[in-house]
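Lab notebook, design round three. We kept the backbone fixed and only want residue identities now. Task for the bench partner: fill in a sequence for the structure below.
Input structure tokens:
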């Protein structure tokens, strides 16, 4: 009988551990896959997706029960197709690439108009070389949209970004990391154009896909949650905004550290939301921590530190006013 007939989950896991140690030099200190998943807080559906992509497996679209120990999660009929995974390097349109990188350098140097012209020329060349649909064209469209947004042309930014989203969906797939990024950028431009409900729908869509691909604890999830919290805050949905802001802070603390600039930004958003809900004491605690991080990392004279100091003063005043009103109400 072939060797794979006698393969058990235990021997397969042993082979995986050996391969990891021999090829990557990584020691997997666990007895089985369930222990690895628990230790690293992995998501089984994300692992399945990643495995299928890497080995060229197409499986049936249905709800898989991974937690039932008495029943196999998969059957032979779940495997729909097998594709060869070909490793190759895509040919590059060198002239367009040179225009694109030069444009990026110009923008970083502060010459936005020149950079914009070069990237528009790169987009034109890419269309001539690749035709209507290509991954590099989608990236170029995203850059043009961002430039339009920076220069205040919000309507043009949204139009270019819509093209980038449609192209990325077609070329990369709907759950590709690039497509998720395109959704979040389009959400920002929709919000800038006053289309709040569309912006929220796009961010929820991006969050759902990111959750499927990476799980809850990825740094990108913190960014998406912060953006959702900001939009909900802007439309007065403070209770829901608070939930997303708290989640964003927890993930940021875990991935970047509690004393990072990203943590300071997350705390500032949380403080603003809590103050809108009237919880000035907790808001003050978060803003004090924000001020402390900015002061340590950026110095007292930095714009962010001064802004946080002003916010602290404002929150303290609001807390005093609220305390006085409560005292007057009790006195009556």
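Proposed sequence:
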């Amino acid at each position: 009988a072939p060797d794979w007939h006698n393969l058990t989950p235990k021997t397969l896991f042993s082979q995986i551990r050996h391969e990891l140690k021999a090829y990557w030099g990584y020691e997997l200190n666990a007895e089985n896959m369930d222990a690895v998943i628990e230790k690293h807080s992995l998501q089984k559906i994300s692992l399945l997706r990643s495995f299928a992509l890497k080995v060229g497996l197409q499986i049936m679209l249905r709800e898989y029960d991974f937690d039932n120990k008495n029943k196999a999660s998969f059957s032979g009929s779940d495997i729909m197709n097998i594709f060869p995974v070909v490793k190759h390097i895509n040919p590059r349109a060198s002239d367009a690439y040179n225009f694109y990188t030069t444009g990026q350098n110009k923008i970083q140097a502060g010459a936005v108009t020149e950079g914009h012209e070069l990237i528009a020329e790169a987009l034109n060349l890419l269309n001539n070389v690749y035709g209507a649909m290509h991954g590099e064209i989608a990236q170029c469209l995203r850059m043009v949209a961002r430039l339009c947004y920076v220069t205040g042309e919000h309507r043009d930014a949204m139009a270019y970004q819509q093209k980038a989203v449609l192209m990325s969906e077609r070329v990369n797939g709907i759950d590709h990391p690039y497509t998720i990024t395109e959704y979040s950028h389009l959400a920002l431009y929709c919000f800038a154009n006053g289309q709040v409900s569309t912006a929220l729908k796009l961010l929820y869509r991006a969050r759902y896909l990111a959750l499927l691909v990476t799980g809850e604890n990825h740094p990108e999830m913190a960014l998406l949650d912060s953006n959702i919290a900001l939009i909900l805050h802007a439309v007065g949905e403070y209770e829901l905004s608070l939930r997303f802001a708290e989640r964003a802070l927890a993930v940021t603390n875990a991935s970047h550290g509690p004393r990072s600039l990203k943590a300071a930004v997350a705390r500032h958003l949380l403080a603003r939301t809590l103050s809108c809900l009237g919880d000035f004491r907790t808001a003050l605690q978060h803003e004090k921590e924000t001020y402390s991080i900015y002061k340590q990392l950026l110095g007292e004279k930095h714009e962010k530190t001064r802004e946080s100091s002003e916010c602290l003063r404002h929150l303290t005043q609001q807390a005093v006013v609220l305390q006085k009103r409560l005292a007057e109400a009790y006195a009556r």
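Keep this in mind before ordering anything: Residues 303-331 form the longest helix (29 residues).
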